[in-house]
Amino acid sequence: MKRNLTLLAAALALSACSTAGPIAPPVPTAAPSVGLIEGTAAYVTETGRHMSCSGLSVALMADTAQTQSRLLALYGSAAHAIQPVEVVKARSAGLEPGAAPINSAGCNALGAFVFNDVQPGLYYLIAHVRREPPSAVGDDFVILQRVAVQAGEARRVRLAP
């Protein structure tokens, strides 16, 4: 009986030992395949007017030949521009409807916005900004900015004239 207890104790002791082999090193994770765009659309003009997208939104558009053509007609540029909302509306009257935005983001009280999970590529940001506090018709503008996003990049932009 004593011999059986000794064998049982030895068996239990051996079973506590691991026979799984060495621990494998951690597998490196791949870099994220998407990026993000974070930015602001708030600034002060040369005349001291405070402009912001606070309470409004920013649209994210894919950079395509059709989008470039439309933006040239609306803004006179496919890279960077600012135009009064009324001018852009008037110019759009004779154009075919454009592609819908890929996404839109609301602007917080500070004029900040974020687009998460953006695929690498070229895009346009289009922000509606207005005088803070709003005072009259003609205080609304649209800012256009072309932006490139790399995989895993946190792209920071400032939309201003």
What would you say this structure looks like, in words?
This protein has 161 residues and is an alpha+beta fold. It has one domain: Immunoglobulin-like (Sandwich). It is built from three helices and ten strands, in the order αββββαβαβββββ. The protein has helices at 2-15, 65-75, 85-92; strands at residues 35-40, 42-44, 50-52, 57-62, 80-84, 103-106, 112-118, 121-131, 140-149, 154-158. Strands 2, 3, 4, 5, 6, 8 and 9 form a seven-stranded antiparallel β-sheet that branches. A three-stranded mixed β-sheet has the order 7-1-10, with no helix packed on it. Strand 8 (121-131) and strand 9 form a beta hairpin. The chain is globular. Residues 1-19 have low confidence and may be disordered.
Q: How far do the termini sit from each other?
A: 92 Å
CATH homologous superfamily name?
Carboxypeptidase-like, regulatory domain
Number of domains: 1
**Overall form:** globular
Radius of gyration: 29 Å
Helix count from the secondary structure assignment: 3
Which structural category do the helix and sheet elements fall into? Answer: alpha+beta
Task: Name the beta content range.
Answer: 35-45%
The major sheet is characterized as: 7 strands, antiparallel
| Count of individual beta strands | 10
Order of helices and strands: HEEEEHEHEEEEE
